[in-house]
């Protein structure tokens, strides 16, 4: 079973630890063939070790899947703008949220695919943990919209409706284009920023004034 090339695997001179080798290979195989279709024996063969040896480095295949998905959602949160920027400059925070979300999703396309396609394979408890992280991302965006409306910089919009719509658009970016036929990151960020600004910003505000400065 051949592993796919991926943007998520960065070239490095230092050899990967056995655990990282397993994680990297599992990500590729789970995305290409599906979590349920990949056996531990197949994973071990792809890594170059005996199936029983995997348990020296991972708890189980299910635990490995949860680790990969939970880490993706956690890393996404870490690149998004924080509370200080949100309160000081909601428009700057909005632009940063869009750019960071788009860039992270595009850069980590395989991890995004795994999180979306194999979420159903997690246990109820694991799904609850992952959903809590996704809810925190939504709350971060909601806080930006609320701050912008409080400061009268954004149009009044129903946050509970707007946040899911915006995240649905941002989360599906990687599914719009096939590998090798993807527009530049700058063009993609600009397009999504323009669409979101069109909904939120009063017509008297220059949509890209803040984003051009930052």
Q: Would you give an account of this structure?
A:
With 214 residues, this protein is mostly helical. The chain has 2 domains: 18-58, Orthogonal Bundle (Arc Repressor Mutant, subunit A); 62-213, Tetracycline Repressor, domain 2. It contains 11 helices and no strands. The longest helix is centred in the middle third of the chain and has 27 residues, at 124-150. The model is unreliable at 1-7 and 207-214 (pLDDT under 50).
Question: What count of domains describes the coordinates?
Answer: 2
Q: Give the CATH superfamily of the largest domain.
A: Tetracycline Repressor, domain 2
Query: What is Rg?
Result: 20 Å
> Looking at the structure, what is the overall shape?
elongated
Using the coordinates above, name the CATH class of the largest domain.
Mainly Alpha
> How much helix is in the residues?
55-70%
Distance between the termini: 46 Å
Catalogue the unreliable spans: 1-7, 207-214
**Number of H- or I-type helical stretches:** 11
- Under the CATH scheme, the architecture of the largest domain is Orthogonal Bundle
- Overall mean confidence score, pLDDT: 87
Going by helix content, strand content and strand pairing, the class is: mainly alpha
GO molecular function: DNA-binding transcription factor activity; transcription cis-regulatory region binding
Protein name: Transcriptional regulator, TetR family
Keywords: DNA-binding, Transcription, Transcription regulation
Domain HTH tetR-type: 16-76
């Amino acid at each position: 079973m051949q592993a796919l090339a991926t943007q998520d695997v960065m070239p490095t001179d230092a050899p990967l630890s056995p655990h990282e080798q397993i994680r990297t290979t599992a990500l590729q195989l789970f995305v290409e063939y599906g979590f349920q279709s990949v056996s531990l024996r197949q994973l071990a063969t792809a890594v170059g070790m005996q199936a029983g040896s995997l348990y020296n480095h991972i708890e189980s295949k299910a635990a490995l899947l949860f680790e990969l998905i939970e880490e993706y959602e956690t890393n996404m949160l870490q690149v998004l703008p924080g509370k200080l920027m949100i309160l000081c400059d909601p428009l700057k925070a909005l632009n940063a949220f869009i750019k960071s979300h788009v860039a992270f999703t595009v850069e980590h396309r395989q991890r995004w695919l795994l999180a979306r396609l194999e979420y159903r394979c997690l246990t109820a408890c694991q799904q609850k943990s992952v959903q809590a992280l996704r809810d925190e991302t939504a709350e971060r965006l909601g806080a930006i919209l609320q701050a912008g409306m409080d400061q009268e910089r954004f149009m009044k919009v129903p946050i509970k409706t707007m946040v899911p719509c915006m995240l649905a658009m941002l989360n599906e970016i990687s599914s719009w284009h096939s590998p090798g036929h993807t527009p530049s990151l700058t063009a993609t960020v600009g397009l999504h920023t323009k669409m979101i600004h069109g909904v939120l910003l009063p017509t008297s505000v220059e949509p890209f004034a803040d984003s051009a400065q930052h």
